[in-house]
Design a protein that fits this description.
Number of strands: 18
Largest sheet: 5 strands, parallel
CATH class of the domain at 2-167: Alpha Beta
Oligomer: single chain
Strand order of the largest sheet: 11-14-17-10-18
Structural class: alpha/beta
Number of helices: 22
Strand content: 15-25%
CATH architecture of the domain at 2-167: 2-Layer Sandwich
Helix content: 25-40%
């Protein structure tokens, strides 16, 4: 008997529909898996046989051919265990075929027949909706993320026996529902708040500009000056995720297997802080079985690199493309996948190896030229792509002990939201551009026009600091954001002056 069951294979952050075709014939013995399966898929035979025994079922002794179509797409992972097992049972006429025609299945089988969660269920559910299927049957741990997709019923099951009973109409399983109202309420709940940060007025102002315009930031300061504390509070002043951003971000984390067992749609912007020993593959993605890297897991959020000079030079250089293009293409001999990577880079570093260059109280013990060599670990092209470069100085004892409350994240976020609303109106007709930092060069003349005083100031800064053309463009974008925060349509000299002031590492005196 011939039976077709539907499943899905993840490609990038999307899924492709896979038809699991099962045919039982009289000639020959054994199970034959075709359709470019990897080792994990080939090993499913032993898991399925053991699961059948625990469910009181037997696999047919006749020849069973299982084809995973399209046959030219490599099938990876143990998520095909459940659809193959169900297809075999249906071909043996032990299941009713009515529900199978409108269902997608995915799940890994244990030897005792229980189901384990798999990666990429959210894009599979989205594919099921696009294919016109009514439901997706997945392990109960994956049901919440599948339920995020509207128009598809997410049926969470715990074992093969439960799947058999459900498909035969012996039990009823209610579709999993995601409480969207509770998810929306959780968007503004953060453990951190800028109210905890004493002093650091200039650094907080720079982070406000970064949040308003989507600009990259580098903080330079001695140990204990609050760089990490400031960076971890940046998500608290960012706008909430839009529904489209939340769905795309959740897809990436679903493919990477980073979602919790009961978590549906992500409600907060991601904050990723990889260790400085991270490899290039872990940072940008790829591997034998392609996985999104840290730059993609930080999509629509923050990528925080602490101790920036300690990262490998080759690791840092791979950031140059995603910082410009907002996506990363991983090409290997066997595959080529594209992952989104629209993140804000926030980096922190000490000013020198000992950490006390330019410290107001402690003396730097580094040898002559050591500061310049330390900074030289970061290439000029990468520094060019960082819009805001600020010095974070230690906070005085008087400021630390002050009882006066600092400005809260909620108050700062209100200003950021107003500036983002201006940018949303400005770029409404431009596809792929949402913030000032994303403006292409061709739009600078239209939206970043300078008056005579501002232009003269910027020209002098370019000559004195020997800035590159890319730095020139980024100063214009930062000045545009500063003007948006001030509610002004025209960029003035004061806005340009503040933007230039955030290019600390471009000064000739730094590290000399």
């Amino acid at each position: 008997m011939f039976v077709r069951v539907y499943s899905g294979a993840v490609v990038g952050i999307d899924a492709v529909a896979v038809a699991v075709e099962v045919n039982i014939t009289g000639g020959g013995l054994g199970l034959f898996l075709v359709g470019l399966p990897d080792s994990a898929v080939k090993e499913s035979e032993q898991r399925i046989r053991s699961a059948f025994e625990h469910a009181g079922r037997r696999m047919s002794g006749r020849k069973i051919v299982v084809n995973l179509a399209p046959a030219d797409l490599r099938k990876e992972g143990a998520g095909f265990d459940l659809p193959i097992a169900v297809g075999i049972l249906a071909a043996q006429e032990q299941l009713r075929p009515q529900l199978l025609a409108e269902s997608m299945l995915a799940g890994e089988l244990s030897l005792d027949g229980t189901l384990k969660p798999v990666r990429g269920v959210l894009p599979m559910a989205d594919r099921a909706r696009r294919e016109g299927l009514r439901r997706i049957i997945v392990p109960v741990e994956n049901a919440a993320e599948a339920a995020v997709v509207e128009g598809v019923e997410a049926i969470g099951v715990r074992s093969l026996e439960e799947v058999i009973a459900y498909l035969n109409g012996e039990v009823q399983i209610a579709p999993t529902a995601v409480p969207h109202a509770a998810a929306a309420d959780a968007q503004g709940l953060y453990a951190e708040d800028f109210a905890d940060v004493k002093g650091q007025t200039q650094a907080k102002r720079a982070l406000e500009i970064a949040a308003a315009g989507g600009h990259n930031v580098l903080m330079i300061g001695p140990p204990g000056s609050g760089k990490t504390m400031l960076a971890r509070r940046l998500p608290t002043i960012l706008p909430p995720l839009t529904p489209a951003e939340a769905l795309e971000t959740t897809k990436i984390h679903s493919v990477a297997g980073k979602l919790g067992c009961v978590q549906g749609l992500l409600t907060q912007r991601p904050f990723r802080a990889p260790h400085h020993l991270v490899s290039r593959v872990a940072l940008i993605g790829g591997g034998q079985s392609p996985q999104p890297g840290e730059v993609s897991l930080a999509h629509n959020g923050i990528l925080f690199l602490d101790e920036l000079p300690e990262f490998g030079r080759s690791v840092l250089e791979v950031l140059r493309q995603p910082l410009e293009e907002k996506r990363i293409t991983v090409s290997r001999a066997r595959y080529s996948v594209e992952y989104p990577a629209n993140f804000t880079l926030v980096a922190a570093m000490n000013p020198c190896p000992c950490g006390y260059y330019n410290h107001p109280d402690k003396e730097c013990t580094c040898a002559p030229g050591a500061v310049h060599r330390y900074l030289g670990r970061i290439s000029g092209p990468l520094l060019d792509r960082i819009d805001l470069q600020i010095e974070v100085t230690p906070v005085s004892v008087g400021e630390l002990s002050s009882a006066r409350p600092a400005e809260s994240s909620a108050a700062i976020r209100e200003r950021v939201l107003r500036a983002r609303a201006v940018q949303e109106a400005r770029f409404r007709s431009v596809a792929g551009v949402h913030t000032n930092a994303m403006m292409p060069v061709g739009m600078l003349h239209e939206y970043c026009a300078l008056d005579t005083a501002a232009r003269t100031m910027l020209e002098r800064a370019m000559e004195r600091l020997s800035l590159s053309a890319r730095a020139y463009d980024r100063i214009l974008k930062v000045a545009r954001t500063i003007a948006d925060l001030a509610g002004e349509a025209q960029i003035g000299a004061a806005h340009v002056a503040e933007a230039i002031n955030y290019r600390s590492l471009d000064r000739e005196s730094w590290g000399r």
